[in-house]
Structures are given as C-alpha cells and as structure tokens.
Amino acid sequence: MGSQYSGDRVSERARREGYRSRAAYKLKEILHKYNIIRDTDSVIDLGAAPGSWLQVLSGITNGVVIGIDVNPITPLPGILTITGDFTDPKIKEKVLEQTPVVSCIVCDASPHLSGQKSYDQARAIALNEDALAFASGILKTGGNMILKSFQGEDFPALLQLMREHFYSVKTFKTKTSRRGSTEIYIIAKYYRGETGSNGPV
C-alpha cells in the first residue's frame, strides 16, 4: 500500500501542475541528470499517450516533436501526433515526411502487465527491441535514446544489444518509479549509425 500512496501523491502533483500523468517527472529526472536533448533537437516519443512526456519535451526543444501511439493523443500546441503502431513501416515514413533528421528517440511504453513476471518481462523486452529497430532505421548518427525497460533475466542481453548500437549506455532508476517496481531506464548516447564507423558526434 505504501507504493500506491506514493503514486497517488505524485499523480495529484501532476494534476496540480497540469501534466497528463505522473510519468512527466520521470523524464524530468532523466533530463536533469543527463544532457541528452538539446534545444534544437527533433525528438520522437514512442508510446506517447496520454502525452505527459510530450508536454515536457515541448518545453525544452524548439525542434520538431512527434508523439506516436496506437491510442489517439489529445492535441498539444506545437506537437505533431501520429496514431498508429510504430512497428508499422508506414509510421516511419510519416515521421520522415515531417523531419528528415531525428536527434533523439524516447520511449516510455510498456505492455499491459499480466502479473506474471517472466511473461511480462519477455513482452517488455520484445517491445524494447521493436523500439530499437525503429531507432535503427531513423535516428541520426550520434543521436540519443531513452528507453524504459524492466529488470529481469532478459535485461542483460538487451543492454548488450543497446551497446552494439550506441557508444554510451547507462541505466537509471527514477525516484518517481513506484516502490518495488523493476522499472528502469536505459540512457543511450551517440548512436553508431548503420555502419557503426563514425564515432560520437
């Protein structure tokens, strides 16, 4: 019950401050610790509904910000939204129509949890791999990524996969995460690009 109480307090704060969900504070924590998004960066938010991360992003970059989700996102000033599954190649085409250069991809998405830890983690890792596949075809060399995952037996393999695509890969657990949660964020910087030969930029 303690973690639920904590969550209620954070959710109430989000309501007071005008954010669509408590998740806004997770992104704020990450951005406070890591210099990962610049004020000119174009950013794609995967699994963006209801839009709290988009609200935060709109305040830190003047670049193009696009939110993608299978559920419609209530419009936000200056933010582009696409309704659809980001694993659909047509979604990637729509993104490239809006911005030919993507500097950062963020993903706070998670599957609907069943309560079966091993099953849920396998599904979460599969979603992470889908997000990485999306990034691999669209993120600029030297670009960055923030990816939510869950700790478990499959997590080390995911970290290794991220290291094959980015020069710097770190993990970060936010204070806003619910107590006892295995939720963890991967902070990946300096995308290697399709060839992996250019180094950080």
Describe this structure in words.
- By secondary structure, the protein is an alpha/beta fold.
- It has one domain (2-191): Vaccinia Virus protein VP39 (Rossmann fold, 3-Layer(aba) Sandwich), CATH 3.40.50.150.
- The protein has six helices and seven strands, in the order ααβαββαβαβαββ.
- Strands 3-2-1-4-5-7-6 form a seven-stranded mixed β-sheet, with helices on both faces.
- Helix 3 (52-58) links the parallel strand 1 (43-46) and strand 2.
- The protein is globular and about 40 Å long.
- The termini are far apart.
Overview features:
201 residues, alpha/beta, Rossmann fold, seven-stranded mixed β-sheet, 6 helices, 7 strands, disordered N terminus, disordered C terminus
Q: TL;DR?
A:
The chain is α/β, with parallel strands linked by helices. It contains six helices and seven strands.
Question: Helices, strands, pairings?
Answer:
Elements: H1 2-17, H2 24-33, E1 43-46, H3 52-58, E2 65-69, E3 80-83, H4 89-98, E4 102-107, H5 117-136, E5 139-150, H6 155-165, E6 166-172, E7 183-191
Parallel strand pairs: 1-2, 1-4, 2-3, 4-5
Antiparallel strand pairs: 5-7, 6-7
Helix pairs in contact: 5-6
- The CATH architecture category equals 3-Layer(aba) Sandwich
Mean pLDDT: 90
**What is the number of helical segments per DSSP (H or I, 4+ residues)?**
6
Along the chain, the helix and strand elements come as: HHEHEEHEHEHEE
User: Unreliable stretches, pLDDT < 50, 5 or more residues?
Assistant: 1-7, 196-201
The CATH superfamily bears the name Vaccinia Virus protein VP39
- What Rg, in angstroms, do the CA atoms define? 16 Å
What's the main sheet like?
Answer: 7 strands, mixed
* Physical arrangement of strands within the biggest beta sheet: 3-2-1-4-5-7-6
Which word captures the global form? globular
Total E-strand runs: 7
Give helix % range.
Answer: 25-40%
State the CATH class. Alpha Beta
| Fold-level CATH name | Rossmann fold
Category by helix and strand content: alpha/beta
- How far is the N terminus from the C terminus? 46 Å
Supply the number of structural domains: 1
In percent, how much strand structure appears in the residues?
15-25%
